[in-house]
Amino acid sequence: DWKMDSFVENNVEALKKRIGSGKVLCALSGGVDSSVLAAMLAKAIGKQLTCVFVDHGLLRKNEKEEVCAVFGPGNANGFDINFICVDARDRYFAKLAGVAEPERKRKIIGEEFIRVFEEQAKQIGKVDFLAQGTIYPDVVESGLGGESTVIKSHHNVGGLPDTVDFKELVEPLRNLFKDEVRQAGRELGLPEYLVSRQPFPGPGLGIRIIGEVTPEKVAIVQDADAIWREEIAKAGLDKEISQYYAALTNMHSVGVMGDERTYDYAVALRAVTTTDFMTAESYNMPWDVLGTVTSRIVNEVKHVNRVFYDCTGKPPATIELE
Ligand code: XMP
């Protein structure tokens, strides 16, 4: 697509000009927008860019490894940047211990992100630019999850601390729609699993575990979710479904395993189709896919003895469970 080619080229040139020999700081979440932003800046200014990626312990299985493979030292894309991966897992788990209320969980996760990012920024010192992956739908405040700011306190890397010391904001994706951002990502050589990623909320698995979040529960939901994603891809349905994930309900129920009675967790599977994420429909999932996933989850993931499929649309449900 010549238009995108020139978009990337023109923007890389424009960024070079604007940034000059300045230093740029970027919070990288591994989502589509921040990844394309980081790739574009990497191409334009290389080592003048520092990307901070925070592992809050609430990422999906292999997510950290995937981001490090693309942007970290020795990456296959030739991105020569300063890449900082902060292991903040213990901090988050400590803060989240004993907290069950959804809005409090969201607040804690959002605030802790700001704290971690501030600490990193302080170590880096004054930067000239702070880069943000704002895209057009964010600007007009519609589109992806825009409405739920009212219902749920939203958190993503767009909401950065105002205490970070920088001169100017740089937002090269401001005029792009989501599909244009993805196309730009492809032009920049980002892997398909990154550019075609489904939305993942800022608070991560923290809002896909109903009630208190613990490392053990995160491990369960990560494993169940990885199986769900793998089987959906195998069935060739990943392009048809807008968003899908496994969540951990806070419910224990009785089951049987051999001669033993079990009392274990129930996993909820969700898959929705939507055009704007403001309303959504539960996906009409083939029974054989559900059957395969269910038996894999109860067999492969410890402490799960029951699997539910969420048939609810939005409204009245939301896409996420919290
Ligand atoms: P809900 O659950 O409100 O979700 O129907 C609508 C869309 O927004 C995503 N979502 C978030 N995205 N930060 C984000 O960046 C958040 O805090 C957040 N909460 C929900 C959700 O995954 C869905 O795509």
TrEMBL record:
This is GMP synthase [glutamine-hydrolyzing]. It catalyses: XMP + L-glutamine + ATP + H2O = GMP + L-glutamate + AMP + diphosphate + 2 H(+). One of its GO terms (molecular function) is GMP synthase (glutamine-hydrolyzing) activity. Pathway: Purine metabolism; GMP biosynthesis; GMP from XMP (L-Gln route): step 1/1. It is an enzyme of class 6 (ligase). ATP binds at residues 29-35. Homodimer. The chain holds residues 195 to 516 of 516 of the full protein. Its EC number is 6.3.5.2. Catalyzes the synthesis of GMP from XMP. Keywords: ATP-binding, Glutamine amidotransferase, GMP biosynthesis, Ligase, Nucleotide-binding, Purine biosynthesis. Residues 2-197 form the GMPS ATP-PPase domain.
